[in-house]
Amino acid sequence: MNERPHAQQGNQPSTPDTSPPLEPPSRATAWVSAALTIAKRVPFTIGLAVLILAAGMFSGSLFHTVNNDKWFTNLAFGVPAYSNGDWLTAITGTFILSEPASFLATLILLPLGVGWLETIRGTRTAGITFALGQLTAIMVTAGILVLFRGLGSSWIDSLASDLDTGPTGGIFACLTLAVCTLRQPWKLRWQVMLVAFAVVSVTLFGEVSDLGHATAITAVLLYQIRSLSKPELREQRFMAAVALLALVGIQILTIIIPTNGPFGPTHAGGGRLAVLIDAILALILARGLRSGRRIAWIGALILAVLNVLRGVLGITLIVTIGPQIHDPQFHRGAGIASLAAAVAGLWLLMLIYLLVCWRAFRVRRTRHLPSNTGTPALPAARVLTQLQTYGGGTLSWMSTWSGNQHFATSGGSLQTYQVHAGCAIGLSDPIGPAADRTPAMHQFALTAEHAGLIPCFFSTAAPLNDTSGHWRAMQIAEDTIVDLPGLEFTGKKWQDIRTAVNRAKREDIEFRMSLLVDEPVEIRRQLNDISAQWVGDKSLPQIGFTLGTLDEAADPQVKLALALNNVGEVQGFLSWLPVYAPGGAIIGWTLDLMRRAEGSFGPVMEFLLGSSLKYFSALGADFASLSGAPLARSTPTAAQQPVDRVLGTMAHILEPLYGFGSLHAFKAKFNPRITPMYLVYLDEADLPRLAAGLTRAFLPDATMGQLAREGFSAIRDVRAAKK
């Protein structure tokens, strides 16, 4: 690479630069630089952490518990302090912690709450929110305790005489405000989780700090009331499933640790059999609730009612019999009964939620969607008519294959799809009027959700144009397109293709473009043998969904490219799928099957592809697609999302099995232009289910044992290669 010469003074010759090259920064320097960058972004968070640690070191609470120290009562806040006129404790108590364990929890929560808010909303907003949130939590909690003490609740009376310290009220206020800036559906989910945390912590543990957290969360949510929204259908189902599992988790937690809330103190243990039964039933019902199944909704209702009745029984025993019995064993049982009453309150909320959202749980198990056509799978001739009328993308011909289903939209489009593992997987874009693309995809997704299925669109040409911001898109492949007008194999970049064509001429290899149905029996027998050998060499069954077989290649609209030697032996073959423009003209071709015979001459694929491209160019076609390269990217983006990094890891793991990267590199010989292909989906939480559904779509005949064996084998190979 040429460099611009330095300016010279007079006629003095330039002297070479003999200074040593700059060394890359050391790891320590890099760490210091990163720390300074973080400090500039979150100075308030760091200052708060330093102040709390300094107070802990000065007071000794960083090393031992100080609850019983005399000075602690002079600095802690609470009703007793305010009764004595010590209002400044609202400030002093904020920076004091009572025990070493509290420092660990606080220093974890600080960056999650205050640091997060400071990063996205700035230092000023974080500081004001922390101060107002902390002050609100302290004062409102004290007001509630003063208002309700002396009314017969021993729990309230006990809290009204307690003191507390720590900045967690302000931290939870910052965390709640940060959550309100998220996009849907995560904003609603985290808001519900914060409310649930507040309810559970007050109900089961009931410390002054728990009341403070609940107060701070409630205050910010009331301030951000406009950020609250009614949950959509999928969110109602999602929250029901999560709430059911969370309730069981809470019950398991109460077996391990003692509780002390509005219903009285309890000891760890007790009720193990009931909790075990609840856990088993919850695991069974949660998946059905996630899919909106009516039978799961009925089962969850019954489970909630039984737990509420158990709590009612516990309350009845405490109120009617408890005061008359002085046996310590009975009072231990009363503690268990009070715990059942506390948990029953949570189950009552679950029961009310299920009843309010009953419309979300009306799904009966199905393998297809209701359609305007009255049948889930249309004849190939009907799909062909749709293609010839409106045209389609490079994968649109696959809509005619058997095994696919079709959803007809009100706008005149057809969406091809398959149902696997509870997912409705749309194949590429809808076939129909261009203006109906977005409405058609929305209608398909809405119908799938009402049927209890998770919708997605696989290998679309572009992300969904969605103003609501609910839809997500990730690049999952690259389509390799060769433009055909004026195609010539000239120049260095086409050298490999010219070499293959010239070698084929020397070895008397013939290229023939035909139809499979027109080939003689002997040729078709050889094609079957080559395909059977190719499949037999794989440790997993043949891929389906977007990869055809000789059955699909037998369609009279599909072209067959053959390489034959001088004695009529097939060296290799390709199948090409037509791509229609609106009006019925074929404007392009898409590569499907690509097979070579064992012992065939080396560059047979280069020869077949190059000859096919010249053939289609002579026909007047605009382009040829060499098909998508799954999990491949020509130019990785600088700022990849976590999902993109996961896909990159998957591509590395699957490379020994399917050679996606090698195939992509091979297609680069034909100098294609790259167009991305996307997976369009609604929610990151759906990705595990979508992965299972796509695995079943591509490998419908693979057993779980085969998938597990090959997956572990591929991971071992990758680890061995790294070593």
Explain what you see.
β5 (423-427), α17 and β6 form a beta-alpha-beta unit. The protein has three domains: 37-229, Rhomboid-like fold (Up-down Bundle), CATH 1.20.1540; 239-364, no CATH class; 479-687, 3-Layer(aba) Sandwich (Aminopeptidase), CATH 3.40.630. The two termini are 36 Å apart. The protein has helices at residues 27-41, 43-59, 70-75, 79-83, 89-92, 100-121, 123-148, 154-160, 168-179, 186-204, 208-223, 233-256, 272-290, 294-320, 328-356, 380-390, 437-450, 495-506, 521-536, 550-553, 604-619, 642-658, 660-667, 687-698, 704-722, and strands at residues 259-261, 264-266, 405-408, 414-420, 423-427, 454-460, 472-483, 510-514, 559-564, 570-580, 586-596, 623-630, 673-681. The strands form two sheets. Strands 3-4-5-6-13-7-12-11-10-9-8 form an eleven-stranded mixed sheet, sandwiched between helices. Strands 1-2 form a two-stranded antiparallel ribbon. The protein has 723 residues and is of the alpha+beta class.
